[in-house]
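Annotated sample (chain length 167).
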Amino acid sequence: MAVGAGPGSFTGLRIGFAAVQGLAFGLELPVVAISTLQVMAETAVRKQGLSYGLVIVAVLDARMGEFNCGCYRIEENGHLSAMKDDQLLNAQEALKLINGYEHCVVVGEAAALELPTFINVYPDAVDLLKIAQRGFVTDLARPIDEIELVYLRGADAWQKRKRIRIV
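Output written by the structure step:
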């Protein structure tokens, strides 16, 4: 089994993870946890026919002026390799990251960055499966209780605003 482990929306990640968690526990199956940003990059490679040597910067709008960003290079064998850990950046930092690569394609939710061009692509389960198959071969599958979701923004961002009661 495989699961998109984030980053992404808190609720979406929890729902997907809960479904996989129930199946993995019940069937005693190992799971490969995969970055949402890596799946987006893989989807762009497949849908756009991107090739060797190109750097893909996958972007998810995290709201509040921040962006989840992941950088991947297309290797000679066609697989993606992570160039950096997925990270949460403000708009200025995200643009600096993108502009730091000479041959770069930006994919995902990048409209708020006001880039001249980007490919609007979302993660596709077909590509999650492709990455998961490689993960099983390279021994990345783990028991579900060892897998943690990736929330790049701190947990305090999800706490509901506390009401102040005036007496």
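Annotation: Strands lie at 2-6, 32-35, 55-63, 66-74, 80-82, 87-90, 104-108.
Annotation: The mean pLDDT is 92.
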